[in-house]
Amino acid sequence: MDSASDMDWHAARAALEWQLELGADECIADAPVDRFAAEIEAREAKAAPVVAAPMAGQVAPAVEQDPVQEAERAAAGAATLEQLREAMAAFDLCDLRHGARNLVFCDGVPGAKVMIVGEAPGRDEDRQGKPFVGRAGQLLDKMLAAIGLSRSENVYITNVLPWRPPQNRDPRPAEIAMMKPFLARHIALADPDLLLIVGNISCNALLGKTGITRLRGHWAEAEGRPAIPTFHPAYLLRQPQAKREAWADMLALSARLRALK
Ligand code: URA
User: What pLDDT was estimated at residue 8?
Assistant: First the structure.
């Protein structure tokens, strides 16, 4: 052996001894295995969606989620208001969420005797993540104060939709339908004695009826609880002459609340 192959022999022996020290003392294959490459391959295969091949002559069925069924399942799984908020935040089938800054879930006192259901967040609500904080909300607060109620003490507030529709457009029937299971669960978990339904869209969602001018001031039942529809405060800002009827609705709410005690 020349000196160069002597060196190779010593280097090879040192490498072998090092492997033996690590515990690699058995020869299990004729060729080396690149375990690093194998691991990457396995990871990629796991991430790829598994698509079942259709049988010969069959058309592969399109797997489509029914948003209402998915919402019902997600809402039913929520045992607390916090879990419901999380379930709504995770609900990915309503496109409104993608254009909204915040999920607007609630304000006020959970467990209060009176629960108000509005329509959908506007710009201010979207920014702050709270319902009824804009001009309409300030008027609502005044209407509540006039009968001794406030969101800091004895009222709980939510909306039919938790995300602001773009340009404040009216919510679409499909959007209301898919968020309704969450609203129903919200009412069940907040467990109010009375509901104040604010505006036409909320009437439609909770009573299945529209025509707020006709419906307002008449007690109905929504989600198994007494509910009174009234004008939306945004409408009252545009039509102040309607405040007189809204005041009558607030008095009716107050009287029913007193009768509970
Ligand atoms: N209008 C609503 O119906 N809800 C809000 O939260 C704000 C404005």
Answer: 77
| 158 CB within 6 A, ligand 1 | no
Would you tell me how many other CB atoms lie within 10 Å of the CB of residue 17? 10
Domain total of the chain? 1
**Residues, the chain, total?**
261
Residue 218 within any structural domain of the chain: yes
User: Measured in angstroms, how far is the CA atom of residue 120 from the centroid of ligand 1?
Assistant: 5
Whether the pLDDT of residue 181 is over 50: the answer is: yes
pTM above 0.70, yes or no: yes
Residue 77: other Cβ atoms inside 10 A: 12
- Which range of residues forms the domain containing residue 252? 67-260
The answer to whether 154 and 113 are in contact (CB under 8 A) is: yes
Distance CA 38, CA 27 (A): 19
Kindly state the tokens that stand for 236: 């009252």
Kindly state whether residue 21 falls inside one of the protein's structural domains: no
Q: Is 249 in the pocket of ligand 1 (CB under 6 A)?
A: no
Mutate to test the pocket of ligand 1, among 102, 106, 125 (most ligand atoms within 8 A of CB): 125
What is residue 1's predicted lDDT score, i.e. its pLDDT?
A: 46
Domain membership of residue 48 (yes or no) is no
> CB of 165 closer than 6 A to ligand 1?
no
Residue 7 lies in a domain: no
Domain CATH for 214: 3.40.470.10
Q: Is 136 in the pocket of ligand 1 (CB under 6 A)?
A: yes
Q: Give 34-78 pLDDT, tens digit per residue.
A: 665 665 566 555 555 445 556 777 776 677 899 999 999 999 999
C-beta 131 within 6 A of ligand 1: yes
pLDDT, position 258: 97
Model confidence over 94-118: pLDDT tens digits?
Answer: 999 999 999 999 999 999 999 999 9
Alpha-carbon 12 to chain mean position:
64
